[in-house]
């Protein structure tokens, strides 16, 4: 009897978004709006923009990459690298 380890059940996440366990391995896939770029997840919706923002209305932090995202009152989206 051969037991397969569930690599997705690890206490250390192997994938930034979704992990699918297979026999003897696993694969990563992304949430909608993102693509897998090698072993990293890349946003298809946002690009890095360096601009002063005087009226931020929302922000979030991506703990996996260490990036901050924020939006201004006109709907523009920004992120740090």
UniProtKB/TrEMBL annotation:
Keywords: Disulfide bond, EGF-like domain, Repeat, Signal
Annotated signal sequence range: none
Keyword check for Membrane: no
Residue span(s) of domain EGF-like: 7-47
Top-level division of the source organism's lineage: Eukaryota
GO BP: epithelial cell differentiation
InterPro entries associated with the record: EGF, EGF-like_Ca-bd_dom, NOTCH1_EGF-like
Keyword Nucleotide-binding attached: no
UniProt cross-references to CDD domains, sorted A to Z: EGF_CA
UniProt domain EGF-like calcium-binding: residue ranges: 4-45
Pfam families linked to this entry: EGF_CA (PF07645)
GO molecular function: calcium ion binding
Name listed for the protein in its UniProt record: Si:dkey-88l16.4
Organism of provenance: Xiphophorus maculatus (Southern platyfish)
